Amino acid sequence: MAIFRRKSASAAQQPLSAGRRTANDLKMGETATVCCLKDPQMALKLLEMGCIPGTQVRLTGRAPLGDPLMLMLGDEEYTLSLRVSEALTIQLKD
Amino acid sequence: MAGATQELRQAPPQPGTTGAAPAQERLPRLALIGNPNSGKTSLFNQLTGLNQKVGNFPGVTVDRKTGVAQLGGERRAEVIDLPGTYSLYPKSLDEQVIADLLYNPSSPDYPDFVVVTVDASNLRRSLLLFSQLADLGLPAILALNMTDVAAERGITIDLPTLERELGVPVVPMNARKGVGMAALRIVMAERLAAPPALRFWQPDATVQALVNEVRAHFGLHNDYLALHYAHQFQHLHFLTETDREFLARLTEKFAFDATARQAEETVGRYARINELLLDTVTVTRTERREPASNRIDKVLTHRVFGYLIFLSVLFLLFQAIFAWAQYPMDLIDRGISALSAVIQANFHGPLVRLLTEGVIAGLGGVLIFIPQIALLFAFLAVLEETGYMARVTFLMDKLMRPFGLSGKSVVPLISGLACAVPAIMGARTIESWKDRMLTIFVTPLMSCSARIPVYTVLVALVVPDEAWLGVFNMRGLVLMGLYLLGLSSALISAFILKKVLKARERSYFIMEFPVYRWPRWKNVGLTIVEKVKAFIFQAGKVIIAISVLLWVLASYGPGNRQDQAEAQVKQAAITQRWPGSELERRVASARLETSYAGTFGHVIEPAIRPLGFDWKIGIALLTSFAAREVFVGTMSTIYSVGQDADLGTVQQKLAAEKDLQGQPFFTPVRALSLLVFYVFAMQCMSTLAVTYRETKSWRWPLGQLVYMTGLAYAASLLVWQVFA
């Protein structure tokens, strides 16, 4: 299972994110701040769901095959579930 | 657009009826709107109880739930429940309904005011939708729901300040428990809803010129509404073609970048909401501990336990649908037979058989599904209410995606093992149009419970009841093989269809993970009532009509051939000295053979002979179309000829059937060919009817019919030609 996960995370991430970490790079339980949303269409959906630049996100879980993942947003104890392809559009502050 | 400028503060006068008495005055109309999981359904159920009606919004398959609510002071109001949404920019067909309703003041459903349900524990996100509604100038009441959850999390909300900042009445409540309902009813009765005086967000000065032009052209009362026309004109159903062309030219002229503007707006709104929350909300958290939901998720989405628990839930579901539902189903079956018997015993005449064997039998065919539908939806409602469904979707998404399906397709597919009819209805939870159509299309390939009688009879006929490798029962293995054949064909078909279908909309998976909660039994009960009603009144009509048609085909024949056949049998009976029961069976069999259905069997025999079927099976294939399990009854009637009266079961009758060489007719290969046919063939008019209802197009049910029947034919042909 672990091999599967590492592979899907790193292989998919390389071409997309130029340098910046994305929500998909978070370690389990790690918290970071959203910097920007890359995909304009996806951004609209993410914004409406409360994933706004400046919000804190915490990776709280992954499905057994590594995808989708669970992100807890801000201080409102509110969890989003999204696919790796969608998490890759969420860039994080360093 | 004459009505667009009307003053919204007052209820629009009702000019309709001439000299109407006050009692006939139209009830004030209010719309319930809110985020998914904000307790909107609970509130709707609290307000209307059993006083609900489910219809359709014009032109779309989205359910339109309305009801009449008793408000304070003997006043009543019509309540319309709008689909859950996060914003006024629609992402799915469901949400499109909201735009069509709220942007068109001349819509028959246009509300006098809206009640916005807001999750108090998620105030920031919930207020986004509210702020949009407020900027539209709609009179609103804010139902501040889930105050209990907010309190648990140490969130304190300064209500008077919030009310002042928002400019609308705010009613704190807990809709699940009914707390705050009385206050809400009073506020609604008093029509305290006022169009919020405040504006939360103003379009940029650069957009203002465009907004002004739209506003002037359509005579709109509000800037924000005009802006939404510019954003959404392509999807608003009430606009004419000329309107759209006008707006298309206009947005091009001003180089209007819809995506960027919308993102800007959302960020702007959140900035305003954050300011507002600073004044009204304080969070005191004693300790930063893992929320209970997250701890439960650690187990329920665990890589091992997650799937194990899911399998156990499935097992329970099947237990319910196969075992528990059997009792009420038997009861309905017996009740229908008894009713027919009573009518046949007490009345005579040409219409009695039509009534008992056509209409009542058809009615029985509808009613028999109710226990399974009710149980399935009870289960699904509980899973949905508790929040577990979102976790199933989460666990299965990655596994389903290679086939063009999503995690949300899992539940309909599994339900399809019980019955495709409720399963297809259950596919509504899938927002993406393409995913939903794929799921609906392939669900009937899952082996439903109606195939079980056919499977068991044929498998028992040709497969020895022996152990294979000393462990596995052969019959059980073959049966499992048939189920796997159904499952794999569903997945492969989805894979193929995925390549064919062009997605019209982008598919998102992003969804909120609701916190775990105990189900509200009232909501579960109302869901069951609603689904059963929808099935009876919408699919049921078609089923009864086709049952009657099939009855006519099986009871009447061309010319007087049936009477001639009966006379011949009676003639033979005298010389052969058949006992009464034997004669009856032979007459029934002869009449069926010479009926239209029998004629049909003979006509299609050349087409089905390459599959190893004769005209008798042809009749069964036709009558199976009413419901697959009818196969057993039909076979039983047809194969009654010339056999010992003691030969009771269908299986014995089939085993006794000889071919022209005097060998058993049902060889293993012939039975396998027939089995494979039943795995694939679309022989269920209920499914076709419900697919039509769910897709609102004959294209999909016809596609299923042609595709599945073609698949069945090809597979049976392969089996018979290769192995026979």
Automatic annotation (TrEMBL), chain B:
Q: Which PANTHER family match?
A: FE(2+) TRANSPORTER FEOB (PTHR43185:SF1), FERROUS IRON TRANSPORT PROTEIN B (PTHR43185)
* Residue intervals of the FeoB-type G domain: 27-194
Q: Which UniProt keywords apply?
A: Cell membrane, GTP-binding, Ion transport, Iron, Iron transport, Magnesium, Membrane, Metal-binding, Nucleotide-binding, Transmembrane, Transmembrane helix, Transport
Q: What is the protein name stated in its UniProt record? A: Ferrous iron transport protein B
Pfam families membership: FeoB_C, FeoB_N, Gate
Q: What are the boundaries of the region Disordered? A: 1-25
Which parts of the chain span the membrane according to its record? 304-325, 359-383, 403-425, 437-464, 476-497, 535-554, 671-692, 704-723
Q: Which CDD domains match?
A: FeoB
One GO molecular-function entry: ferrous iron transmembrane transporter activity
Q: What does this protein do?
A: Probable transporter of a GTP-driven Fe(2+) uptake system.
Q: Which organism is it from?
A: Hymenobacter ginkgonis
Family as reported in the entry's similarity comment:
Belongs to the TRAFAC class TrmE-Era-EngA-EngB-Septin-like GTPase superfamily. FeoB GTPase (TC 9.A.8) family.
Q: Give the subcellular location.
A: Cell inner membrane; Cell membrane
User: Where along the chain is GTP bound?
Assistant: 34-41, 59-63, 81-84, 145-148
Keyword Coiled coil in the entry? The reply is no
Q: Which Gene3D superfamilies match?
A: P-loop containing nucleotide triphosphate hydrolases
What is the protein's membrane topology class?
A: Multi-pass membrane protein
Q: Name one GO cellular component term.
A: plasma membrane
Instruction: Kindly list the positions annotated as binding Mg(2+).
Output: N45, T48, G49
